Amino acid sequence: MSARGGVLTRLRGLVRKEFLQIVRDPSSIAIAFIMPVGLLLLFGYGLSLDTDHVPVAVVTEHPSADTTDFIGSLAGSRYFTPIVVRDMPVAEQALLDGRVNAIVRLRSDFAARERGPDSAPVQLIINGVDANTARLVQGYMEGATTAWLARRAAERGQRFERPVEVEHRVWFNPAVRSRNFLVPGLVVVIMTLTGALLTAMVMAREWERGTMEALIVTPVTIGEILLGKLIPYFILGIGGMLLSVAMARGLFAVPMTGSFWLLFATSAVFLLVALGMGLFISSVARIQFVAGQIALITTFLPAFLLSGFIFEIRNMPAVVQAITHLFAARYFVAIVTTLFLAGDIWSVIVPNTLVLALMAVIFLGLTRLKTHKRLE
């Protein structure tokens, strides 16, 4: 038998052995397929940055046709759910109890001043505990008030003068659905977690069970052992990625603007980074519990907090922005969100993919240097 044939035979045996181990250990299947489904359902339906149907207490000191029309305009908007209350103390108590997010106060002279030459002020009190929601509510209310005034002026045959006319053009996500951005980012988090966690447990498990010693005394080389670990979990990771993308498209209706095959290729590069990190961790920590904890801390948390998945990197302090360059998820989030929402933007995809390829070479190289065919 030729040397090449012997290598392929040994590698085939190692891969088959690893697949048999995966079948006998359902936890690997659960991490690769069940966990992505759970995370996508949990975050896809439970996490949203959209602010819709905000409960608002409306105080009308002197109800009239004009105040009723104003309240009706709020009720017709998808951003507000107006709740008419008797007076300010009741509205303030509702705000303190958290039953409403804001108070809109229409004073007793609102109708007269709105129809006359004077301005008719509308008092808006917002719960500012969540600053982001407060800013959104303020902007929505300003827009709703301006739209109501423009409609009223048109009904009277008057011209509504605006100091500045703003025409909005939303690129790449015209529906302005936060889910369109969050779900692709969640695919990155899932691939990071599954790739690193799966392989982080592999080598450590071999050391704990004593099967690594049996492999060491065989004719297989360290490179063949690592490939035998890498190939099965690469296939599992790709399967989990395909399942996540199918759910993103079919279940959450996230648009896919770019090329699927480009997404597949870049995902394969990123998966090599995640698997390389997991193998490196497991080659250093020979205890499954320790390897799993290190994998969670060094891969999942940075992918969740420092990748731009939820928090905008440009809004972070300069030191933290510099730290984010050390984590592969940052680069893959940029690739995935671009492919899903913007298309094949090569100026984004190429440099980020090259960085991922470099990281894959580094982690797989470190794993090879760290792993030796000896017990110590």
Describe this structure in words.
The chain is mainly α. It has two domains: about 5-45 and about 175-370; about 55-155, 3-Layer(aba) Sandwich (abc type-2 transporter like fold). About 65% of the residues lie in helices and about 5% in strands. It is built from 14 helices and four strands. The protein has a four-stranded mixed sheet with strand order 2-1-3-4, sandwiched between helices. Helix 1 (about 5-25) crosses helix 9 and helix 10 packs antiparallel against helix 13. The longest helix is centred in the middle third of the chain and has 32 residues, at about 180-210. The protein is elongated, with a radius of gyration of 29 Å. The relative contact order is 0.11. The model has no long low-confidence stretch (mean pLDDT about 85).
